[in-house]
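Changelog-adjacent note: as of this version, every example in the card shows the full chain rather than a window. The one below runs 459 residues end to end.
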Amino acid sequence: MFLSVFDMFKVGIGPSSSHTMGPMVAASRFLDLMRASPFHFRGVKASLHGSLAFTGVGHATDRATILGLAGFDPATYDAARAEAALASIRSTHRIQPPGLPELAFDPARDLTFDYGPNLPGHANGMILKATDAQGDVILQETYYSIGGGFVVTETELQAAGGARSRTRAEVPWPFETAAEMLAMARKSGLTIAQMKLANELTFRSRAEIDRGIDRLWEVMNACIDRGMNAEGILPGGLKVRRRAKGIHDALLAERGLNMTPPHTINDWMSLYAMAVNEENAAGGQVVTAPTNGAAGVLPAVLRYYLDHVPGASRTRIADFLLTAAAVGGLCKHNASISGAECGCQAEVGSAAAMAAAGLAAVLGGTPEQVENAAEIALEHHLGMTCDPVKGLVQVPCIERNGLGAIKAVSAASLALRGDGQHLVSLDVCIETMRQTGRDMHEKYKETSLGGLAVNVPNC
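Full-length structure tokens:
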């Protein structure tokens, strides 16, 4: 199934792609459904289920749903305008979506958290309803936020298998597994990035692709810079202190000193990743890579390449991101990138695999070495749980991105020391992640009902 680089990487807002961006997108889609309907609507209601309910407040799912119903979109989100809209909705109990009449909506009454069993399709489920003048439901749709900002309806989720077979022939290199990807690379003599670009050109011009990729890195890089210059306490009640600026200042002060140990480079990688995830935790603008909770890994590795690797060139940014997107697509298509579905192995693990593949590619690795790098990075995240304290994307998420970046660079380096031949394939590793996620207890999958979330005081 073709997943564009612009599907894997999306500009959005923190703190969560599946719990913040996804519900906002779902609400926006429901507004489109309402606009296309002949009914006369007078109100809207929403219910959050599964992981969206358990960690909804910590992930700002309630805010995102309300703002989505008010017409806000993650890619064009304006924080000041959003705060004004929320204040108005909470005081008037009315919501005014573009292209629709004013609707009754009391957040305290019309937005409910259902802590019962998950909806059947996915752990991140929500039901949106529109009512008439009598308060009767006359339009309803179920949405699933399946990770990385991707949203599907119940019908779309059930039809996914058929859609996959139909889209296979629409691109010149329709690889659905790493084995197919490598076979096509050997047959064509193309790199993974070149095959991915050829697929992208089926749907967009080269100029559009170049502009889009430039925009993605611009937002990623700006997020790193903002994070390295911001101070204060992150919102949510845990009183987590931003650390990136202090680390950055210390690293700058140590530059050029003979006593600086070689392993300090790990601190730079962690710094870049933590800067992004502190911005994400604060609700700032980030790029899903492939999710918000794992948004710091890939930008950190790319920034490491550009700022610290001799001979690095900005002209290779596209190759890095295209290669990473190819690997991320395999993870999503054959397993999951959702913490609520497969734990953090699906988020930071997939992100590390993507980053390792991208780095190996721009350092001159063969397709086999690139696949090996991705496999090493993912293999050593297998079994990682998602247990955010207080439902916030802060502990252990921020530091976990830093360690994910370090693992990604180590994986790429190890792979480049070999010839690409290895025992465990990326396909086997991805399938193992899927099986592990299936068997993992629900309390370790973004519900904040187990692990660090219950063993660390919430205040």
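Structural remarks: The first strand starts at residue 11 and ends at 13.
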